[in-house]
Amino acid sequence: MQKMLNSILALYQQGGDLVYAGEPVTQLMHAWQCGRLAEKSGASVALQLASWLHDVGHLWVNLEGTPTLRGQNDAHEKIGAEVLLPVFGPAVSEPVRLHVQAKRYLVSTRESYARKLSPDSVRSLHLQGGPMAQQECATFEAEPYFADAVKLRVWDDLGKKSAWFDDSRHDALDHLTQLMYLVAREKVIQI
Ligand SMILES: [Fe+2]
Ligand SMILES: [Fe+2]
């Protein structure tokens, strides 16, 4: 457990300054902004952590440049969920696994949503399967973590601001560490 928490933290220590492909933020800024938005919205600690770590799969595979420009889908949501499930449980891994599907769902169900997507998000949407069909939407709504995935997705789209990073790098990583230990400990107690 400890080893895995250190490995996840190391991804942000080493890769946090990488530019988030196609967006005006770094990986750490994007993660921090999503975590802050979740915290401000009164989300559970598990959902705050999911928001922080929803793109950990990008760092795990670390594809260079902007993969969507090359027509590449890195399946980061699946990889991220696989990494997170054994350490933090489904309350963290499931919203992460579903955050790409949530974009496809929101494009189909909220008219204004698609207009606000960033150019990179529009490119990746098509690589990820495009808008959901009606039946897919119904199946998605039946997912146990559907509501959390939709919330996370909204924060994901908002968390791409070039000039919003109030913490020092050290404090941001320290906050992430505390959150990881808190959720991992809660999971152990539940078992
Ligand atoms: Fe993502
Ligand atoms: Fe993201």
Ligand catalogue? fe (ii) ion
The CATH architecture is Orthogonal Bundle
Total domain modules? 1
Strand content: under 5%
Fraction of residues in helix? over 70%
| CATH fold assignment | Hypothetical protein af1432
Uncertain segments are none
Radius of gyration: 16 Å
Mean pLDDT: 90
Distance between the termini: 14 Å
Total beta strands: 0
Summarize the main sheet. none
SSE sequence, one letter per element: HHHHHHHHHHH
What is the CATH superfamily?
Hypothetical protein af1432
3D architecture notes:
With 191 residues, this protein is mainly α. The protein has one domain (2-190): Hypothetical protein af1432 (Orthogonal Bundle). Helix content is 70%, strand content 0%. It has helices spanning 2-15, 27-40, 45-53, 56-61, 76-88, 90-109, 111-116, 119-127, 134-141, 146-158, 169-190. The two termini are 14 Å apart. The structure holds fe (ii) ion (2 copies).
Features:
mainly alpha, Hypothetical protein af1432
What is the structure about, briefly put?
70% of the residues lie in helices and 0% in strands. With 191 residues, it is mainly alpha-helical. The model has no long low-confidence stretch (mean pLDDT 90).
Please give the structural blueprint.
Blueprint lengths: L1 H14 L11 H14 L4 H9 L2 H6 L14 H13 L1 H20 L1 H6 L2 H9 L6 H8 L4 H13 L10 H22 L1
The structure holds fe (ii) ion (2 copies).
